[in-house]
Amino acid sequence: MTRTPGSGCPSAYRPAGGPNVVRVTFALFGRRCLLKLGLGAVGAGLAAPSLALAQATNGADMRSVALDNLHTGESLQAVYWEQGDYIPDVLDAVNEHLRDYRTGDIHPIDPRLLDLLDGVTALTGVSAPFQVISGYRSPATNAMLRERSEEVAKKSFHMSGMAIDIRLPGVELGHLHAAALGLGRGGVGYYPESNFVHMDVGPVRAWRGA
Ligand SMILES: [Zn+2]
């Protein structure tokens, strides 16, 4: 993917996978870019991004991510992997989306975390955006949270961009938890009182919090 310098919009990206790919990828950049590129008609697809994502992920050579960040109010929906490769511009957008919202610090997010979420989407059959409670945490933020709660680990995988705390609208937390465990990849923390599931790409383990 290439972008027009300074505009933040893709220039003339035309993936080979068909119109659904275009629709989902451009959802990342917004209607302004669509209009700029003369693709206003594609913008109609933005009204039903989940449907578009569902269509896109039906292809075997494609993985998509859909995130709503509850702290920043930002949404991100995009194909992040296709035909064997992660898409660098989309990974950059994911890094920004999952930044430490308290400090603004951006850290590379391990793309395997997106694969975990993709696996959960496949298991639950629900392609609605995940609601993000926590992504990357800077050392300063983690230290502050540790003072508030004994449940925050000193060397949290959140600090290395390898963990995410989520819930999934339309899916009971217990089912989300079961899907995460069912993948058998990385760590899974269940926090029913706080209404989220922690997932990371560290060693396989499981725990229950509050
Ligand atoms: Zn967590």
Walk me through the structure.
- β6 (187-191) and β7 form a beta hairpin.
- α5 crosses α7.
- Residues 1-58 have low confidence and may be disordered.
- The termini are far apart.
- The chain has helices spanning 19-27, 31-36, 49-57, 88-97, 111-124, 139-148, 173-183, and strands spanning 62-69, 75-82, 85-86, 130-134, 163-167, 187-191, 196-200, 205-208.
- The chain is built from seven helices and eight strands; from the N terminus they run αααβββααβαβαβββ.
- With 210 residues, it is an alpha+beta fold.
- It has a domain at 63-208: Muramoyl-pentapeptide Carboxypeptidase, domain 2 (2-Layer Sandwich).
- Helix content is 33%, strand content 20%.
- The chain has an eight-stranded mixed β-sheet with strand order 3-2-1-4-5-7-6-8, sandwiched between helices.
- The structure holds zinc ion.
- Zinc ion is lined by residues 134, 158, 163, 165, 198.
Gist of the model:
The protein has helices spanning 19-27, 31-36, 49-57, 88-97, 111-124, 139-148, 173-183, and strands at 62-69, 75-82, 85-86, 130-134, 163-167, 187-191, 196-200, 205-208.
Descriptive keywords:
alpha+beta, Muramoyl-pentapeptide Carboxypeptidase, domain 2, eight-stranded mixed β-sheet, 33% helix, disordered N terminus, binds zinc ion
Q: So how many helices?
A: 7
Radius of gyration: 17 Å
The N- to C-terminal Cα distance equals 42 Å
Kindly name the structural category: alpha+beta
Q: Tell the overall outline.
A: globular
The major beta sheet can be summarized as: 8 strands, mixed
Indicate the CATH topology of the domain at 63-208.
Muramoyl-pentapeptide Carboxypeptidase, domain 2
Order of helices and strands: HHHEEEHHEHEHEEE
What's the number of extended β-strand segments?
Answer: 8
> Mean pLDDT across all residues, rounded?
79
Q: Note the beta-strand portion.
A: 15-25%
Bound small molecules, deduplicated: zinc ion
Give, in spatial order, the strands making up the sheet with the most strands.
Answer: 3-2-1-4-5-7-6-8
State the low-pLDDT regions, or none. 1-58
* CATH hierarchy: architecture of the domain at 63-208: 2-Layer Sandwich
Which CATH class of the domain at 63-208 applies here? Alpha Beta
